[in-house]
Amino acid sequence: MRCPRCDGGDSRVLDTRTGVGAIPHAVKRRRQCLVCGFRFSTLEVPVREEITVRKRDGSVEEFDRQKIVASLQCALKKGNRRRDEVDSLAEKVVGLLLAAKPVQLTSEEIGKEVMRCLQGYDPLAYARFLSVHKSFVNLEEFQKTLSTHGDAF
Ligand SMILES: [Zn+2]
What we know:
By secondary structure, the chain is of the alpha+beta class. Helices cover 42% and strands 24% of the residues. The chain has helices spanning 65-76, 83-98, 107-121, 123-132, 139-149; strands at residues 11-20, 23-33, 39-44, 52-54, 60-62, 104-106. The longest helix is centred in the middle third of the chain and has 16 residues, at 83-98. It is globular, with a radius of gyration of 16 Å. Bound molecules: zinc ion (ZN). Zinc ion (ZN) binds at residues 3, 5-6, 8, 33, 35-36, 38.
């Protein structure tokens, strides 16, 4: 698990807890980066194996909650968000995605759900996410966001 502050690859586990909120099989670990000393938490959640994700190139992979956390972190990294805020936002995204009990999702559906949650949470992070994932994004919507929040760029 890479450090969210310096991207260093080595961390030590300070504390391990099982069962987080409504997810009995989740494992939450408090870590400290060995490079910069930053403390952060990671959350491991078992994925339901029957859910797969079809990517734009046609390949299929297992649904991975960590990828949603990673894209949220990527979008929010300049916003100084606490890790548990990112976790609960990811939880919201996953909850919405899995609410209909899908067997397969597409990477577009996941991206759109991430954007929808980001939009209400942090418009700047939303715009940043759009700029990274604009290939499946409605360009008009992107430009509208930029013109609304353009002063901050
Ligand atoms: Zn670090």
